[in-house]
UniProtKB/TrEMBL annotation, chain A:
<dbReference type="GO" id="GO:0016491">
    <property type="term" value="F:oxidoreductase activity"/>
</dbReference>
<dbReference type="InterPro" id="IPR036291">
    <property type="entry name" value="NAD(P)-bd_dom_sf"/>
</dbReference>
<feature type="domain" description="Alcohol dehydrogenase-like N-terminal">
    <location>
        <begin position="26"/>
        <end position="155"/>
    </location>
</feature>
<dbReference type="Pfam" id="PF08240">
    <property type="entry name" value="ADH_N"/>
</dbReference>
<dbReference type="InterPro" id="IPR011032">
    <property type="entry name" value="GroES-like_sf"/>
</dbReference>
<protein>
    <submittedName>
        <fullName>Alcohol dehydrogenase GroES domain protein</fullName>
    </submittedName>
</protein>
<keyword id="KW-0479">Metal-binding</keyword>
<dbReference type="InterPro" id="IPR013149">
    <property type="entry name" value="ADH-like_C"/>
</dbReference>
<dbReference type="InterPro" id="IPR013154">
    <property type="entry name" value="ADH-like_N"/>
</dbReference>
From TrEMBL, chain B:
<feature type="domain" description="Coenzyme Q-binding protein COQ10 START">
    <location>
        <begin position="10"/>
        <end position="133"/>
    </location>
</feature>
<protein>
    <submittedName>
        <fullName>Cyclase/dehydrase</fullName>
    </submittedName>
</protein>
<feature type="region of interest" description="Disordered">
    <location>
        <begin position="148"/>
        <end position="180"/>
    </location>
</feature>
<dbReference type="InterPro" id="IPR023393">
    <property type="entry name" value="START-like_dom_sf"/>
</dbReference>
<dbReference type="InterPro" id="IPR047137">
    <property type="entry name" value="ORF3"/>
</dbReference>
<dbReference type="Pfam" id="PF03364">
    <property type="entry name" value="Polyketide_cyc"/>
</dbReference>
<dbReference type="InterPro" id="IPR005031">
    <property type="entry name" value="COQ10_START"/>
</dbReference>
Length: 391, 180
């Protein structure tokens, strides 16, 4: 089959690889009908996540049709022919983390838990197409994919919603939603969102759905800010105005009640000298993050507020504003999204027309053109917000 | 050399105890063991992989046994690497899980054999036992050892790092791996 693979830093390549087969009794094989490129895939391609290997099949946002199930798959949960969206964290459904609905912290799904533990203190769940640190699972930017614990995670789509309407239940819609949910939003809240990429856009829509009075998008790409504005959100272009001053103006000097970092480890801009400091440290691998958005979110948030982090971080960061965090009673919340927790309720919101995930799609390309998709997305060419790939 | 490791398994103490008491089950999750065969009510014959494609064998007997609480064993006779083991089971505070604590003690001989054993365990000997217990947890909680494309061979995963790429295996690779 054809699959999009990691081919070293800044290079992806669609290659011929073997078709997947059942390795565990509760596996299923899914024929992929739609898949997408995620902002977090860029961290892999840019070389900031360790333990990638040449030939790793990428992709953790995908959906399709079940074409084979292992002998251990509960037929009451999943059968050949089912149309499914697959959540990106692989979760067993049986451990204490899964029982507590902390699916992305599943204690059993990562065969390389020992390696993850060295990096993170405790292991994390397996993730499709996301380095060997998270298990070494082949991803879904491919014609077929093996899905472990297939009777736990995949969500069956039984209505006639299009792929485009439900595909993002695999990651970015629940991730954005969890970012807003972690904010404990109150009706009077002003919620500021750093990053107007797809996850940021969904965090904004979710914050409004959860009752925020005002939602503010912070980015530097005019087309991304326009997209947020068209969805009814207030915008700040950090290349044109000072973010802190503008946030103070918009909030009567209080600062946003809740702040969401939807940027993560490769933030750009900010104060020039601090950016240069992070860029150099990251380049020589003595710091894995450029946490500018997180620092600014902490410094901007009103005292007693919540800073919710859904942008991906992978290792260690410098110059964490611990003084602001501690002295101003801020709460910091975060997590890789526990996608399985949100898929069904968010599907209802899509069915009811309260959320429209298709609004972020700007490009649909054949899988064969994955490299072009990565290029458009990474370099923000041609107004690229979200790329859907069709195998 | 003393190795101590602990894990928590979301199964009642009686299940976890019963699984471990059937010592023949140990090779399903302990990387170095090829086979444990019962030779009597309290005696077993163990086969383990050793460096240079050798295997070492020894007899063992259960020395201590309190149902749903603890099991102790030791090698008998003229074992190349005399060893003892002890596992104890403690109900976890959540009311549904079991803490498993394992202590393995190896009496590593001098000379070439001792050096080979030390090399086999590497710089972090406890890592192997930690990984063994992770697999025990996978087996008891999910039914089997979890495999990925990068680490397809279950308990042999650690020996295979750096791993094969995370892309599906060909049928030849699968056949070769199953046989090995």
């Amino acid at each position: 089959m054809r699959a999009n693979t990691w081919a070293g830093r800044n290079k992806v390549e669609v290659r011929d690889v073997p078709d997947p087969s059942i390795l565990n009794r509760r596996d299923a094989i899914v024929k992929v009908t739609s898949t997408a490129i995620c902002g977090s895939d860029l961290h892999l391609v840019d070389g900031y996540v360790p333990t990638m290997q040449d030939g790793d099949v990428l992709g953790h946002e995908f959906m399709g049709e079940v074409v084979e199930v292992g002998a251990g798959v509960d037929p009451g949960r999943l059968r050949v022919g089912d149309r499914v969206v697959v959540p990106f964290p692989i979760a067993c459904g049986a451990c204490a983390a899964c029982a507590a609905e902390l699916w992305s912290c599943c204690e059993n799904s990562n065969p390389n838990a020992g390696i993850a533990e060295k990096m993170f203190g405790h292991p994390v769940a397996g993730i499709f197409g996301y380095s060997h640190l998270t298990g070494g699972f082949a991803g879904g930017q491919s014609e077929y994919v093996r899905v472990p614990f297939a009777d736990v995670g995949p969500l069956k789509i039984e209505s006639d919603l299009t792929d485009e309407q439900v595909l993002f239940l695999s990651d970015i819609l629940p991730t954005g939603y969890m970012g807003a949910e972690m904010c404990d939003i109150q009706p009077s809240d002003v919620v500021a969102v750093w990053g107007a990429g797809p996850v940021g856009q969904f965090a904004m829509d979710s914050a409004r759905l959860l009752g925020a009075a005002t939602v503010i998008a912070i980015d530097k790409e005019p087309y991304r800010l326009r997209m947020a504005e068209e969805a009814g959100h207030t915008t700040i272009n950090f290349e044109e105005v000072d973010v802190r001053s503008r946030l103070l103006e918009l909030t009567g000097g209080r600062g946003p009640d809740k702040c969401i970092d939807a940027v993560g480890m490769e933030a750009s801009h900010g104060s020039a000298h601090l950016h240069a400091y992070d860029r150099v440290k990251q380049a020589v691998r003595s710091e894995t993050e450029r946490p500018h958005a997180l620092r600014q979110a902490i410094l901007s948030c009103r005292s007693g507020g919540i800073v919710s982090v859904i942008g991906v971080y992978g290792g260690f960061l410098d110059k964490f504003p611990s003084g602001a965090w501690m002295n101003r009673s801020l709460t910091l919340r975060t997590g890789q999204c526990h996608v399985q927790r949100y898929m069904t309720p968010l599907l209802r919101h899509i069915e009811n027309g309260e959320l429209d995930p298709t609004r972020v799609i700007t490009h649909t390309l054949p899988l064969q053109d994955a490299a072009r998709g990565f290029d458009l997305f990474k370099n923000k060419q041609d107004g690229c917000e979200k790329v859907v790939l069709k195998p | 050399m003393d190795l101590l490791a602990t894990t928590t398994i979301r199964r009642p103490v009686s299940d976890v105890y019963a699984f471990w008491r059937r010592l023949e089950n140990l090779p399903t999750f302990m990387a170095h063991l090829q086979e444990v065969r019962s030779t009597g009510d309290r005696t077993t014959h163990w086969t383990a992989s050793a460096p240079f494609d050798r295997s070492v064998e020894w007899d063992a007997e259960i020395t201590d046994e309190v149902p749903d609480e603890r099991i102790g064993w030791r090698s008998t006779g003229d074992a190349d690497v005399p060893n003892t083991g002890k596992v104890w089971f403690v109900p976890a505070p959540d009311g549904v899980s079991t803490e498993v604590h394992v202590l393995l003690v190896y009496d590593i001989p001098g000379g070439k054999l001792g050096e080979a054993v030390a090399r086999y365990f590497g710089e972090e000997p406890h890592q192997q036992l930690d990984d063994d217990l992770r697999r025990l947890k996978q087996v008891l909680e999910t039914g089997e050892v979890v495999r990925s494309d990068g680490a397809p061979w279950g308990k042999r995963a650690r020996k295979e790092f750096p791993q094969r790429p995370a892309q599906p295996l060909s049928s030849d690779e699968i056949a070769k791996g199953e046989a090995a």
